[in-house]
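Dear V.,

Thank you for sending over the compound details. I've combined the ligand you provided, zinc ion, with the protein sequence from our construct and run the structure prediction for the complex. I'm sharing the raw inputs here so there's no ambiguity about protonation or stereochemistry in the SMILES, which I know was a concern on your side last time.
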Amino acid sequence: MRIVDCHIHAVGETNPNDLLRQMDETGIDRVLILSKHHRTSLEETRANLLETKKLFDAAPDRIGGLAYVNPTIPGVTALTRDALSEMGYTGVKIIPDHWFAYEERLEPFWEKMNELGASILFHTGILYGNDDGSRFCQPVYLEKLLWYPRIRFGMAHISWPWCEECLAVMGRMRAAAGKGHHEWQSYIDLTPGTPPHIRKQAVANAISFCGPERIMWGSDGCVPDRLGGQRRILESDLKIFDELGLDEKQKEQILSGTADSVFPAGA
Ligand SMILES: [Zn+2]
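Below is the predicted structure of the protein with zinc ion bound, written out as structure tokens.
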């Protein structure tokens, strides 16, 4: 079965061959690598993008890149456009870092992403970093994106502890798409965060409310050297999929089909 991990962080210098070897050991066909994050500097962000570009340039069929940017940095709109249209990034990663997605100052950025038909993975849910930043990452603030219907976006970690709010946003975007006659824009990324006592229920709820074609699997691992948890997370989620009675087609959709379609190779 084809498996794509939609959410891996680049945290240090990584040799593409080491990464491919680790992927082979776990049976992962493709990963999406998030470039290193810089909270304030355009130049550091650019350097991070160029560093991660080396990784996916070495194996574009097996490694895809998500450009991790802070849309409030002056000049980042043009840099993000370049990342998508020139550097070969297949999508964007964003964490709302002490700003809310609905703020007026972000509208030119969303406008450009809409024009480009960008796919964006958002951190949603509690944060164990970025100072006291969690409140900015409630999924409901992403409702703003219904004004930008060509943007597709994923909500990472099923937005825990706001899993129900995440599903509510999914429903909201589904309804907006129906009314506006455009495609349903939103997706859920299953990366860890939900604690064991609600993991199975959270996954079951997401599947039953949205369908497997709206859900993508990821481990939230790090490279170069902390991809180690990937196998454990995969095995535990596969067990949940079996307990929920998913068929092979549904499993493959969640494990690779959705990520391959939202963040395609060779985009
Ligand atoms: Zn992450």
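A first observation: Residues 7, 9, 220 surround zinc ion (CB under 6 Å).

Warm regards,
I. M.
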